[in-house]
Amino acid sequence: MNQTTENKKDTFVTIYLNDIIKALYRFWWVCVAAAVLFGGFSALRSKLNYVPEYQSSVTLTVNTQNDSGSIKGVSVYAFYYDTTTASLLSTTFPYILNYNLLQEAICEDLGTSYMPARLNASAVPGTNMFTLTSTGRDPQLTYDVLMAAIDNYPTFAKYVVGNIKFEILKHPTVATSPNNKVDYFNEAVKGAIVGLFFGLMFILIYILQRKTVKTKNDIKNQLNLDTLATIPNVKFKKRAMPGDKTLIFTNPDIGSAFPESFRVLRNVFISSLRKNEKIIMTTSSVPGEGKTTIATNLAIALADHGKNVLIFDADIRHPSVELILGIDTETIEYETVTPLYKIAYIEQYNLRLLMPSASEELETEYLNSNDIKKMFDEIRDSYDYIIVDTPPCGIISDALFIAQYSDAAIFVTYQDSVRVSRVKKTIDNLMSTEVRVLGCVLNGTAQGLSGYGYGYGYGYGYGYGYGYGYGEDNRKKERKSRKSKNRE
Question: What's 433's domain CATH number?
Fold first, then answer.
């Protein structure tokens, strides 16, 4: 029964307004392109398939002939109308028009081997009035067929209703323009509507197939983890100076929801730790999910709470903690801990920063030696908490190596960014090291009408999280870019 309930949860799909807005923002051009293509195709198809047709019609009355008597031995015939005959004519008139012998007679009169036009008759109920219409591709032949039908019809109708006489009320004319003109604009509009429908169906399928982590329930149901905190997107206050864009929760130019979320994270973090758990790593699935921002602000929040904190920038290929802190590493005095690591006291935030100190050629030794384990053993008792910022464990194995020497881990995922399947695979790899995962931090939560309903009720528009580079040249470019965007 529990399994059935779980399956129902898995098959239940929730579409958020934010999903629709994002999908429309990303794929609006698909709808436009589909509308243009289908509209153009519909108009072109109508033009290519268009065959002009012309009509000639005549309105007439039909009277039957009957012997009304004789004068000096000569029979006198009179044409008259009665309702019975009118009813019979109304029923038989269309059928006689399509009679093969009648059509052969018309073709013989015109000197053609085929009927160049279609004949149709409509009667006014209760009267002897009929409208005879001829429709064809050639206006003159269409008119000629109509006149031939008027001449030959009485000959074949007399076997059904007797002798009849036509009285033309409205004489026919040769058509001067087609009666089936095509409005290409309307055809294009109809095609565009169909194209727009298919474009919206594509977007709907995209939304249904794009299963990402959006809410706390997704973290609980899809990832089987607890949510430690939700961190909103950042919007700096209007009065903030252009250069004052450090993503530190103590920055007075950041809205109140951002620092409040880290106070919540700090309290949940402390209550979630077990005795003697001090070395806590942060990681994510892919670059750009804000793990460095989370690790740095958590360390500052703990230090602000009176804790003795060390933050270790273990992302050796892309060290970024100093960029988040807004410090110049060249002017800070470092103390060498081991030949591979150095440490500095950041007085502004009352915490210590540990960074790799070896040259680029020795990067591979950072994580392939026992130096990290020895260093952790030596400094463990000197700090209340050691926050380790590691690379994304869904990209390279560095984080999984450090996880072996960590007491616990915090997993960071950016809202509506990475597919659930990839996040789950990354978490499974992390848990394979037997490190205890405290929970997940949902970063970059959207607010307002288009959001998912989490956070602190503020709307934010300034994102953070950045790309991942390798090599010294890429690193320098990344740092310059990060100084202007302040994203990690």
Answer: 3.40.50.300
Q: Between residues 435 and 123, which one has the greater pLDDT?
A: 435
Find which of 83-87, 264-268, 324-328, 334-338 is predicted with most confidence, using mean pLDDT.
264-268
Q: State the pLDDT at residue 460.
A: 32
Cα 443 from chain centroid? 22
Domain assignment present for 155:
yes
DSSP E strands: which ranges in 304-393? 309-313, 335-338, 341-346, 351-356, 385-389
Q: How far is CA 261 from the centre of its chain?
A: 30
Q: Are residues 250 and 376 in the same domain?
A: yes
Q: Is the full-model pTM beyond 0.70?
A: no
Residue 139 within any structural domain of the chain: yes
Report the pLDDT averaged over residues 363-371.
64
The runs of H, that is alpha helices, within 227-331 are: 257-272, 291-304, 321-325
Residues 100 and 223 in one domain: no
What SS3 class is residue 81?
coil
- All residues at 6 or more sequence positions from 95 whose CB lies less than 8 Å from its CB, including other chains: none
Which CATH number characterizes residue 104's domain?
Answer: 3.30.70.1130
Same domain, 256 and 134: no
Task: Please indicate, yes or no, if residue 198 is contained in any of the structural domains.
Answer: yes
The per-residue pLDDT for range 159-191, each reduced to its tens digit, is 766 677 778 888 889 999 998 888 899 999 999
Q: Which of 437, 433, 426, 369 is nearest to 396 (CA)?
A: 426
Q: CB-based contacts of 171: which residues, under 8 Å, 6+ apart?
A: 58
For residue 303, what are the CA distances in angstroms to 85, 300, 320?
Answer: 108, 5, 19
Residue 111 lies in a domain: yes
